[in-house]
Amino acid sequence: NKPIPRSKKRKPSFRRLLKTSGAKLENKRRNRQFKQQSTAKKHRKEQRKLRHALKDASARVPAPLERYGKRPDEEEFEESLPVDMLEEDDLEEMRALAQKASFLTRNLSSCEPVHARKRKSDGTVETYEKTPRKMQAEPEKEIIHLLPIKDKTGIIRQTMEKPVPNGLLQSGCVCVRAEQDIEMMSSLSPEEQQQLRGQKLQERKLRIAGLASAILADPVSSMKKLKELRSILMETDPSVAVTVRKLVMISLMEVFKDIVPSYRIRPLTEEEKATKVKKETQQLREFEEGLVSQYKFYLENLEQTVKDWKQKKRKKSETVALQAYKGLAEVAVRCLCELMVALPHFNFHNNILVLVGPLMDDPCSVVSDMCCDYVKKLLKQDKMGQASLGMVKVISGLVKNRNYVVRPEVLKCLLCLRIKEVEVKKDSEDVAPKKKFMTFKEKKKNLSRMQRKWKKAEEKLEKELLEAEASESKEKKLKLHTETLNIVFLIYFRILKKAQKSALLPAVLEGLAKFAHLINLEFFDDLLNVLHNLIESEDLTYRESLHCIQTSFSVLSGQGDVLNIDPLKFYTHLYKMLLQLHAGVPNDDMGIVLQCLDVMLAKRRKQVSLQRALAFLKRLSTLALHVLPDSAVGLLASCRTLMHTFPRCDTLLDNEAQGSGVYLPELDEPEYCNPQNTALWELHTVLRHYHPVVRTFAAHLIAGAPSEGSGALGMELSRRLPVDLFQDYSTKDMMFNPPVVTLAPKKKVVLKSCNTSPPRSFQWTRRTRLSVLHGCLLSSWCSGPLHQSTVFGHRLEGAD
């Protein structure tokens, strides 16, 4: 080995060392050591290669020529050949070839020249044709490269064949077994086939139940059983494959709902994996890792089932018929929806939302209705807003990607959002400063040493309390709700701007009516103009027009109180539309009308004139004459609210005129129809209504709607809102509230006073019946009511 050459660089002087930092010197020293080590390593590598080459050359020994036994006739033939037939040049060439190792060691059975590899051979095609063809009997096995091993001779690379998973071996065996079962079942009668299928199905059910029970009994140590249960999803027996897969899907769904923890499992970092922990902690980590992986595989199986159904993709094995994919897909969608609602905190929840969202607009009504119902359930029970935000984002993308051509039920799901408060933009003076911890400089400047010590302990305690607090902060909740509502309004405004004639407009108007009080002030003017133009266009239905009116007043009743706007045109629209209300069974619009009346008249009492209130009171009492009893109760309750809000409305209970002019009921302007010159004569007609609650309200209004006294209402009616009374007395379920009193049937009494009965040959005639009845009546007047009842009993019995 050559010695490592010493560096010719001079050592730095002491003065230079003073100028150089310690870190720089340390880096220089490390770089020098690294260069020396790499040079020595290269040198050792070259020496090792040289030794290996010498060792291989010395180990090669030329193989001796094969000696064959010669036949006696060949020896005689060779001896008979003359030696002088070979010339001297030929002998020299033979001796030269004998001295070459390649000639001694090459394969003499081949006719190829000695140095054929060094030049191109003209007979390449012929050699290729002469080589025998070998068919590949077995597939090539995949090789896995393992970590190399280093010994004295050098690095030894290791490889091994990739082991075949047991599942594939079992699947292969199962396929063979399935083919055998098909052949066997084809030879059986239908009754025997059904009996054999029942036996197989019972075996699979017992196996599924046993695995599920074992997993629930000890989830931490049952990951292998969970994997085994999931593997049954690949059932290949055609006779029971569909049923077994459905059972496994539902069983796994219930198992995951029970064993999943109440927190999100995050992947471990490299530092956490390298840290030594207790045995229990390590076991818990393994359980969490296995649970997440199995849950992920299960969701992938459900997703693949739905995709196969959507793409009508037939598998190669053809275990499941193409017609059975729909049933499997419905069960898979149901499992996804159940997990979406039950585990909103766990891993892969956003992935489930992305899967379920497009299925809300699926052409299959069963799947779409199922998804919409579960999404509504999710939005109703979501208290913090994280799941709601994810679902709203998915719906927004779905509506935009499909160019606003989706089912209206998709947008109606947004009405179930639990949003009552959002962050409102305020001035810098109104915003209270957030509490923050003092910096070290501020403490040193403003506090003494003892105060700093106490302040440090106090801040540490506050941080620990904040970390230990399990409930989400109100600020985070408001932030999530604000972001969610912004996306919802973005969906609504896009449809109002680009798709006003689409089928989504009723759902948009209904949503705006619910969340309009949370809209920012910047959009009020534009939104009111758009709503007014929609009503004026007369392209809307009756319900859509009501939603426009409700939305406009919801906007003005919230933050719009600060705006000086008089929506007289919306009062005119509602006043005109009241007489067009449907008086039959589908009276769902009455609830919207009652809500509009409450917002327009009761909550905006200061902006409503007396003439307007009188006109609405007269029209509501007229409308109560021809609607159903539940609607009449709601309208009369609204009249009571108006009389309490505007006490001067009691002038309509007097038959004297209060001014000039005549009441014009056909005029659609509530301000100019002279309502002060009429009276509420409709209430006297409603007093003869068949519904008792309607009669009670009519009598109460005729008395002037007193709060106490003989004409006052009971507590169960006076404290209820008109909308609530309308729902309480609804006739949707074909039920009458209050229930109708049924009379007890009269009992048939047998005559006991007369012991004689007519003979069998006696024939009843009209004269005999009248004479008997007359005599019995006379006797009954003398003997009392008992004989009267027995007489009629005898009369009926005899007449029969």
Automatic annotation (TrEMBL):
Pfam families in alphabetical order: CBF (PF03914), NOC3p (PF07540)
GO terms for biological process, alphabetical: DNA replication initiation
Ranges of compositional bias, category Basic and acidic residues: 121-137
Biased composition regions of type Basic residues, renumbered to the chain: 1-18, 40-52
Keyword hit for Flavoprotein: no
Coiled coil: 440-483
Positions of the UniProt region annotated as Disordered: 1-79, 114-137
Residue span(s) of domain Nucleolar complex-associated protein 3 N-terminal: 204-298
GO CC annotations, alphabetized: nucleolus
Principal place of residence: nucleus
Subcellular location field: Nucleus, Nucleolus
Keywords: Coiled coil, Nucleus
Residues annotated as domain CCAAT-binding factor: 545-698
Molecular-function GO terms, alphabetical: chromatin binding
PANTHER family in UniProt: NUCLEOLAR COMPLEX PROTEIN 3, NUCLEOLAR COMPLEX PROTEIN 3 HOMOLOG
Membership in a protein family: Belongs to the CBF/MAK21 family.
Name the record gives this protein: Nucleolar complex protein 3 homolog
Source organism of the structure: Scleropages formosus (Asian bonytongue)
Gene label: NOC3L
